[in-house]
Amino acid sequence: MTTPPPPIGSIGWADLTTADATQVRDFYTRVVGWTATPLSMGEYDDFVMSTPAGETATAGICYARGKNAELPPVWLIYITVADLDASLAQCRANGGTVVSEPRSSGGSARFAVIQDPAGAAVALYDAGV
Known about the structure:
Elements: E1 11-18, H1 21-31, E2 35-40, E3 45-50, E4 57-63, E5 75-80, H2 84-93, E6 97-104, E7 110-115, E8 121-126
Parallel strand pairs: 1-4, 5-8
Antiparallel strand pairs: 1-5, 2-3, 3-4, 6-7, 7-8
């Protein structure tokens, strides 16, 4: 059974990208009670953080390496969109900047990171369904 994507326009995920993901993982496990599951990135692990009972994946804590090296160390929310390419075109047309071009999120799902005209970063997520 697969989980349906969040409704269009909703916040479906949050990631924190940092130089020391292990330290930040430990911080959130101790402070809010999240549990951590390693997510292999090849040569290192990022972490999927879940509710204390481990029932619901809540967020990701990632190393600022590889494709994530350009991402700022902030909680980055993922907003679900119907058409990633159309949303990126609207971003550019309305004074925003594409920080990270579209990339796969597994299967046909894709995401990209943008900045709005005020400079706030957000990820746009297209489930590809």
